[in-house]
């Protein structure tokens, strides 16, 4: 029996066990399998593990998407978490490419995935407060938002949660070094029903300009001398 002789229900079940690349490879073999690949029911969950994956044509974004995870931990991607003023020209160029890729993808999610329920972003050094605000506004059913090691996330995201996160039930802002204790306390006051976790975030050293760092170093030296 040839695979194309299976009915639609069986083919969808088969595709559900395949990863994105395998689904796309099968879809290229004939029109019937392409139609199965394009069925929204297959694309309620998406996981990505590198910026390059966001630009591939092996997945579909649409209203059926409910669960989205973008997590990467490679040494190259860690460059994006360095403060901008410390980066050399090569690192800045590398990070600019990542920034455009991530921002363009999240904008597509905002425009095409209004039924998103859960979003996890880990190691995404280019995700900004504006991105999260836009997602909260365009995905009103979002119940779970997990941000880990997203260095550009600040208290503005926490404020956006209090204003636009009406459906939010779980919020994680772990290892986000520009989150402050006052920002976390505001979420607890305004949205007591949200399960809030902020592992290490409020205790990390936030980003600061070189001049400010120099002043802190001088002050530390003075204290040592005293």
Compose a concise summary of this entry:
With 226 residues, this protein is an alpha/beta fold. It has helices at 8-15, 20-27, 31-37, 75-78, 89-112, 129-138, 155-164, 181-190, 210-225, and strands spanning 45-48, 67-71, 118-122, 144-148, 170-174, 195-197.
Strand content: 5-15%
The largest sheet is: 6 strands, parallel
- Backbone shape: globular
Distance from first to last alpha carbon: 86 Å
Helicity level: 40-55%
Round the Cα radius of gyration to an integer and report it.
Answer: 21 Å
Spatial strand order of the main sheet: 1-2-3-4-5-6
Number of E strands? 6
- Uncertain runs with pLDDT below 50, 5 residues or more? none
Mean pLDDT: 86
Count of alpha/pi helices: 9
The sequence of SSEs as H and E is HHHEEHHEHEHEHEH
> What structural class do you assign from the helix and strand content?
alpha/beta
Task: Tell me the layout of helices and strands.
Elements: H1 8-15, H2 20-27, H3 31-37, E1 45-48, E2 67-71, H4 75-78, H5 89-112, E3 118-122, H6 129-138, E4 144-148, H7 155-164, E5 170-174, H8 181-190, E6 195-197, H9 210-225
Helix pairs in contact: 2-3, 5-6, 6-7, 7-8
């Amino acid at each position: 029996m040839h695979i194309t002789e299976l009915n639609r229900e069986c083919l969808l079940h088969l595709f559900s066990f395949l990863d994105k690349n395998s689904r796309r490879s099968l879809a290229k073999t004939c029109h019937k399998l392409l139609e199965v690949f394009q069925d929204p029911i297959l694309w309620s969950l998406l996981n990505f593990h590198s910026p390059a994956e966001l630009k591939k044509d092996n997945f579909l974004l649409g209203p059926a998407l409910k669960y989205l995870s973008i997590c990467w931990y490679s040494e190259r991607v860690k460059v994006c978490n360095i403060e901008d003023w410390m980066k050399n020209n090569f690192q800045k160029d590398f990070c600019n490419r990542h920034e455009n890729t991530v921002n363009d993808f999240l904008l597509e999610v905002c425009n095409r995935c209004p039924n998103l329920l859960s979003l996890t972003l880990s190691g995404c050094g280019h995700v900004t407060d504006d991105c999260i605000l836009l997602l909260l506004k365009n995905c009103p059913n979002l119940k779970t938002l997990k941000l880990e090691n997203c260095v550009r996330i600040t208290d503005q995201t926490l404020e956006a949660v209090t204003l636009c996160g009406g459906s939010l039930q779980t919020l994680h802002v772990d290892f986000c070094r520009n989150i402050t204790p006052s920002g976390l306390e505001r979420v607890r006051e305004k949205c007591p029903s949200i399960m809030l976790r902020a592992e290490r975030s409020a205790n990390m050293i936030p980003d600061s300009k070189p001049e400010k760092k120099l002043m802190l170093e001088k002050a530390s030296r003075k204290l040592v001398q005293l």
